[in-house]
Design brief:
The chain is mostly helical. The chain is built from 22 helices and no strands.
Length: 395
């Protein structure tokens, strides 16, 4: 064990104490104190190994024995607090940290662990103050900075958290963790392109971290970078821990659809439905891909399956409407589009498709009303604007 080196020192110290018949009382007291501190150090080494191995009960015994010998031994107090936190004894941990802080007020770990306690107590403001103090005392410790920014996010101060992390990116030039955090905050703010850049850097620094690769995949997808996103997701799904993620297969399929690889997309969607047969969105995506391939039968089956899972799903009715249009059954398509609009009155696509069906039935004036309703909901809607301009030109 790492603490065995102290045994010879203890033996030498024992000899010194045993032979010190001519020492003054103060010298004897100092020698005893030195002996106790050395023994406490040995117990600390033992306790630290026990803590690492998850032997918390044994660790508690060793820590208590050590603190009896050296009550002001800060590392023992910190380890005692850690054990208490692991056991859910937060009040005990808080007392240990208060004692440690009196002995060593400049110790950053004391403040950090206090932050952990107050975070568990759901007091983010107090936890933030402790994390901030820890980061100020020890700026090179990334864990303290990350804890501080986590509390800023918890307090809805995301802009401050993002600014703080961006200012420290260069300082922690080899850290994938900080770049991953910046990327996720940028995704949350809708800055997908910037997010992808930071997440790519993180992935280069930690190429085996699949969680970072997943974050990168999502950012690329949201940024509309379909091919790079497909490449990242393909690498993810080749790993056994990600191969059964239906949501990833759906995302891969959407990327492939956008890249005009419809056949590959349908295969990805089908894989998603096999992994999770109760995932309505996977069936809808499979149905849309089937429509693109003119496979009305499988598209219909997919739409019906989605409706059986979610009877109030407007997108399923919309899909049925598309199928009926391709079959030339305009009146039935119009009925399906109306159902879709009734289920989601803010959906501009269903309103546009009602208008489109009406145009096909020769009712351009009514079609314009539905395009106008869509534009009222979403003034910059591209589909509604094009359809409105087209019907007005013909009229």
């Amino acid at each position: 064990m790492s603490w065995k080196w102290l045994v010879p020192a203890l033996v030498a110290l024992l000899v010194t104490v045993g032979c010190g018949h001519n020492k003054t009382p103060k010298q004897k007291e100092a020698a005893v104190r030195q002996w106790q501190e050395a023994r406490a150090g040995v117990l600390f080494g033992l306790a630290k190994d026990q803590y690492k191995n998850g032997q918390f009960d044994e660790c508690r015994i060793s820590v208590n024995d050590g603190m009896k010998l050296a009550p002001d031994h800060v590392p023992l107090r910190l380890l005692s607090a850690r054990v208490a936190i692991e056991k859910g004894q937060l009040e005990v941990a808080d007392r240990e940290l208060s004692a440690a802080r009196k002995v060593d007020p400049k110790n950053a770990e004391v403040d950090y662990l206090s932050g952990v306690i107050y975070q568990r107590w759901q007091k983010p403001e107090t936890a933030y103050e402790y994390y901030h103090s820890a980061a100020e005392k020890q700026p090179a410790e990334l864990a303290y900075l990350m804890a501080k920014t986590e509390m800023l996010v918890a307090m809805n101060r995301e802009d401050e958290a993002l600014k703080l992390l961006q200012e420290k990116v260069v300082y922690f030039e080899h850290s994938a963790v900080i770049r991953d955090a910046v990327g996720q905050l940028l995704v949350h703010k809708g800055k997908y392109g910037e997010a992808a850049e930071f997440l790519h850097q993180a992935s280069v620094l930690a190429p085996d971290d699949l969680t970072i690769r997943e974050h990168l995949s999502l950012a690329l997808y949201l940024a509309g970078q379909w091919i790079p996103a497909s490449e990242q997701i393909t690498k993810l799904t080749s790993d056994q821990h990600y191969a059964k993620r239906a949501d990833l297969w759906v995302t891969l399929g959407e990327c492939q659809m956008q890249s005009n690889s419809v056949r590959s997309a349908r295969q990805s969607f089908e894989t998603a439905t096999q992994i999770d047969p109760n995932m309505a969105s996977a069936w809808l995506s499979f149905g849309r891909a089937s429509i693109q391939m003119k496979d009305h039968r499988r598209a219909e089956l997919a739409a019906r399956r989605a409706l059986s899972l979610e009877p109030q799903n407007g997108q399923a009715q919309l899909l049925i409407g598309y199928i009926r249009l391709q079959e030339g059954k305009v009146a039935e398509a119009l009925t399906a589009f109306r159902k879709a609009s009734a289920l989601d009155q803010q959906d501009t696509v269903s309103l546009c498709m009602i208008g489109h069906a009406m145009e096909k039935m020769g009712n351009g004036a009514e079609a314009i009303k539905f395009y106008a309703r869509a534009l009222k909901i979403k003034p910059n809607d591209e589909l509604a604007s094009k359809m409105m301009a087209s019907v007005e030109l013909r009229e």
